Automatic annotation (TrEMBL):
Taxonomic placement: Bacteria, Pseudomonadati, Pseudomonadota, Betaproteobacteria, Burkholderiales
Family: Belongs to the LysR transcriptional regulatory family.
Name of the protein described by the UniProt record: LysR family transcriptional regulator
A Pfam family of this chain: HTH_1
Ranges for domain HTH lysR-type: 5-62
Native source organism of the sequence: Paraburkholderia translucens
CDD domains attached to this UniProt entry: PBP2_CrgA_like (cd08422)
Amino acid sequence: MSIYDNLDLLRAFVAIVDSGSISAAARKRRLSQPTLSRQLQALEAQSGAALLRRDTHRMSLTDAGQQILADAQTLLSLAEECESRLRSDQTALSGQIRVFSTIDFGQTVVSRLISSFIQTNPAVRVELGYSNRPLHMIEEGCDAGILAGTLSDERVVSRPLGEITRCVVGSPSLLKEHKKPRKPAHLAGFPWIALSGSQFGNPRHVTLHSGSESCSLELEPVFLTEGGASIREAVRMGLGLAVLPEWFVEEDLLAQRMVRVLPKWRPKPWSAQIVYPAQRRMPLRVKAFVDFATQYMATVLKPHKAASG
């Protein structure tokens, strides 16, 4: 018998991983803890390998567990769709979609996108997670991710959504304390706040462009963080200059809590993209979400342009 023949065992395993413990999964599935433990043991016996590492403090997946988890999620998703089609002749989408996004993009633009998608497809449920480590989220079984920045990995398929324009900003109080910059090279003398994360580029280097001219600066940030909201707060307080997306600081600029610094000089835009696992079958509801996101983002982002010098 194949380990994939018994969907109940696979459901038990996925529930344990999603819940973080056997006891929590048992409550979720309304089974006794010994019953769920036996189901896990049966699946491990059939697979010939331990699927979970357990100690007194935490539970984690083994390599075999990672592989079986991804396969189990795909099979259960397919079974769910088949059952849904048998129950109803209608074509309405239903079921769960697990989405992740980079933190600040997710809390604003992506949250509005998801709300629009659910309003269009009310039988769908979406779980949104935030992470600036996108490959980790794919490995954890997410269906799709919407990212600001770049990601290149053979494990994922990437579809461009558009471009996020950025600008250099600072507080009026900071600019009063320093000599007014007249060209990009003068900015190296300012304190800087920067965003960490490989998909966002080198936080200690920024290149500004104005027409055909460019200027590269080497920086020593006084504050390095994974969250754009942290940078925005620090800029408001006058801690330093930062490069931030224009949509993210629009209200601050209008309220004059921030000002553009050397507005004719701009950093290269970030690309926005939606990604999904390359080797995993895409359920219909996830495909619909990917297509919806592509169309939605075309209305809120600048069209993607080919990279230029």
